[in-house]
Specification:
Number of strands: 18
Strand content: 15-25%
CATH class of one domain: Alpha Beta
CATH superfamily of one domain: Reverse transcriptase/Diguanylate cyclase domain
CATH architecture of one domain: 2-Layer Sandwich
Shape: globular
CATH topology of one domain: Alpha-Beta Plaits
Structural class: alpha+beta
Distance between the termini: 40 Å
Length: 505
Amino acid sequence: MSIGRNNAKIKQNTFKFSYTKLIISYLIICLLCIGVTMPIFNKVIKNHDKEMANDISSLIAEKTNSLFYVMTEASENIARLISAQKTEDGDTLYESLRNTIDDAGYISIGIINMDGSIYGTEPEKTELKKWGLVDQAIEATGTFASEPYRSEENGKMVITLFTPIYGNGTKIGSLFITYALDYIQEMTSSEVIGDDTEIYLMNAYSGNYISCKSKDASEIGSWRNVKLIRVLIQTDNDENYAAWEQKMRDGEKTGIIHFTMNGVEYTQVFEKLETMYNWDVVVRIPSSTLTNPIHILQKGTIILFIVLVTATIIIYLISQKYEMAEKKMLEKLSVYDGLTQLFNRRSFEGFVNEYIEKHSKKEKSSFIFVDVDHFKDVNDTYGHEAGDNILKEFANSMRKSFASNCMLGRFGGDEFVVFIPGNTDKKVIEGYLEKFKTELSKITLEGAKEDFAVRYSAGIALLEQSTEDVDSLENKADAALYEAKNAGRNMFKWYNASMKGKTKN
């Protein structure tokens, strides 16, 4: 064993030594090539820098769009959490909202009822009414973001997201969350973005835009119109810029243009914002941002070359730091299973326990444990990709079969759970399960045998005592599921006291 470890260390050291020599040789060759083939090298680098400018501009735009997607996901998750509560009383929902939702970068949060009543602070109510956002929230059927506006409460430019709240399949109001524009700026900026890089939010139809990042700090948060600078923009063909604007108005996902303004060459990219209708994020980056280091490299100083390499490493470490921070933020907001988009086990158990604590003394509820019958055979016969597809279709069938107020989750593997708040009617619950069986019969698998069918086994338990929690419900439903499997699968069983102590294999 020690000989093997020593051989591994020797190989590792040899690799490191060879890798170091390779780097040194590469640097020497690069310096020689720069000195000997300077004209050709310069031309190649200039073309390469243009492509890199396009990539960086697109990356910044995509990052801004991703942030809006995360904000939208967070808002919709909160709205679903509110919908799961068995009440439509605005005061109760608002109080629960403020007590259970942690700050995630927003400056205000509240609820708008369908009758136009607002549950929030007085300044929030004034702002929403002033900008005509209450009627928009009532009429909206999906999540949308307001146009940027200046808050009179703190003087900042802000954007408000609105998400419908449903109860028993009917819209009962809207959740609103307001973010400061400088928060969006902070989350979409990074150390790799040059000081000359500019970021805007632009209305595709009016040409109005608001600055999120600018080399002139006084312009940040201010409104402009593209017509004011249009006369300064020079392109190879005037129709090029008009075509770029038309792509934006036509709702295309992205568009890139190169132009000169005040003697400076720029690359400008727009990226469509799905949440802010008719709005796009626009990134403008000077071509010199990338070509300046190359001009310095032309002087052929080894010291500068080392500085550039060191700077690259530092920038990489900084970008890694920001990526880790963003990853933690996304993990904090995520409460869903990545494959099926149902609640994951942690969030499902947390929501059910919270509901039981608030309602168990007043209401009876039901809990169902569901397994995919013979799921291991699907993986073994058709492969794991086919198995994943079956799990996704299984989850979709659950959504179609159970009422909108039912909470659906995946525990992992082929285990699924359903919590039905405020309902223990066996006829209703069995009706859900029969519909579920019908939906499963529609699932097909390419290349499967003629007798292939997706079926389930289920165990049902009732929340009958206020002292129970999600663990006891799981154990009872699990015992009933064990009986269903022992009885031949493709069926459901109701828990009874005689099943106590049995567990599923």
